[in-house]
Design goal:
The protein is mainly α. The chain has 8 helices and no strands. It has helices at 2-36, 41-52, 58-64, 74-92, 98-105, 109-137, 143-153, 158-180. The chain is elongated.
Length: 181
C-alpha cells in the first residue's frame, strides 16, 4: 500500500509541477502581449496584481523577458503604444487621462499632450473629409472639387481619398437602407 501512496504522491507532485509550468507559460503570454502593446513593465506588474492577483515586480518582469524571443524590440513596442493610444485608449476615454496613459505607456505629459493634439487634428480632418463626401453625395459639389479639397487642403494622398470615399459611400448606403425600413 505504501508503494501506491508513493506513486499517487509522485503523480500529484508531477501534476502540480506541470500545472505550475502551464500557469507560468500563460502568464508569460500575457506579459509579452502587454509589453508588445507598448505597456510599461510597471503597468504590467501592477495589472497582474489587479487582474490575476499575481504579485511580481517590474524588475522581475524585465528579467523574465530579457531573452524572450516573442518580445518585440523597444522601438516597435513604442510605435504600438502610440497606435494603441490613438486607436483604443482615446476612443474609450471620456476624459483625456494623462496620468493613466503615463503609467501605462511611460510617455511624458508633454508627449501625451502632443499625441492628443495630433489625435484631435486627425478627428477634425476626418470629419471635414466626411463632410466633403456628404456634399458630393447630396449633389452640392462635384467629386473633382471634393478631390481637390481633400488632396490640397486636407493633405490626403490619392489612395486615402479612394479609401475615404468607399467608406463614406458604404455608410451612406447603410443609412439609406435603414431609413427605408
Amino acid at each position: 500500500m505504501t508503494t501506491n501512496d508513493t506513486s499517487d504522491n509522485l503523480d500529484k507532485k508531477k501534476y502540480l509541477r506541470d500545472r505550475k509550468k502551464a500557469d507560468i507559460g500563460n502568464l508569460m503570454d500575457i506579459i509579452v502581449a502587454k509589453l508588445n502593446d507598448g505597456c510599461t513593465y510597471s503597468f504590467v506588474a501592477t495589472g497582474l496584481g489587479e487582474w490575476l492577483h499575481y504579485i511580481i515586480s517590474p524588475d522581475e518582469i524585465r528579467d523574465l523577458t530579457s531573452d524572450e524571443p516573442l518580445l518585440l524590440p523597444l522601438p516597435e513596442r513604442e510605435k504600438n503604444a502610440e497606435k494603441n493610444i490613438y486607436c483604443h485608449d482615446l476612443k474609450i476615454m471620456k476624459n483625456f487621462d494623462t496620468e493613466y496613459l503615463h503609467r501605462k505607456y511611460g510617455y511624458s505629459y508633454q508627449q501625451l499632450n502632443c499625441i492628443f493634439r495630433t489625435f484631435m487634428d486627425g478627428c477634425q480632418r476626418g470629419e471635414q473629409a466626411a463632410a466633403l463626401i456628404a456634399q458630393v453625395h447630396y449633389g452640392y459639389i462635384t467629386m473633382s472639387e471634393a478631390y481637390k479639397k481633400l488632396t490640397s487642403e486636407l493633405g490626403y494622398a490619392p489612395e486615402d481619398v479612394i479609401r475615404v470615399v468607399k467608406k463614406t459611400k458604404s455608410l451612406f448606403e447603410k443609412l439609406e437602407k435603414e431609413v427605408k425600413k
